[in-house]
Write a structure and sequence with these properties.
Layout (H helix, E strand, L loop, with lengths): L9 E4 L20 H15 L4 E6 L40 E5 L10 H8 L2
Parallel strand pairs: 1-2, 2-3
Length: 123
């Protein structure tokens, strides 16, 4: 059992629809979806205890100006902000009152307001 107190917050990072396109109502119990099912279980605990949940997703502009060197490696173009696949995953979709942050790089801290949010929440 998780031991949580009021100074805890949950960071849900990069759980986005693109990774779960093949997940359907009829195959949610398949082993390949264990990760998101476990994420949902933790998320449900934080929601039930009314602890802060911060959902973070990676997004890039359609003109790809903010990719930097990210495309130099094995990754292709991804997380374009106008694509529905860039949205948060359906199974862990944010609910009212959760904090939402979009990031342009790999780090949720670099170039985002996450640090300011955490200080404001006093967690």
């Amino acid at each position: 059992m998780l031991k949580l107190n009021k100074s805890c917050a949950l960071l849900v990072i990069d759980i986005q629809q693109a990774d779960f396109v093949e997940m359907k109502e009829g195959n949610r119990d398949d082993l390949e979806w264990a990760c998101i099912r476990n994420a949902r279980r933790v998320l449900d605990v934080f929601r039930a205890r009314k602890l802060p949940v911060i959902q973070i997703r990676e997004v890039h502009r359609p003109d790809m100006v903010d990719f930097g060197r990210e495309l130099d490696g094995s990754e292709g173009v991804h997380c374009i902000e106008t694509s529905p696949l860039t949205d948060y995953a359906e199974l862990t979709y944010p609910v009212e009152g959760e904090y939402l942050i979009s990031k342009r790089r790999y780090s949720a801290f670099f170039g985002t307001d996450l640090e300011i949010l955490l200080k404001g929440l006093r967690v």
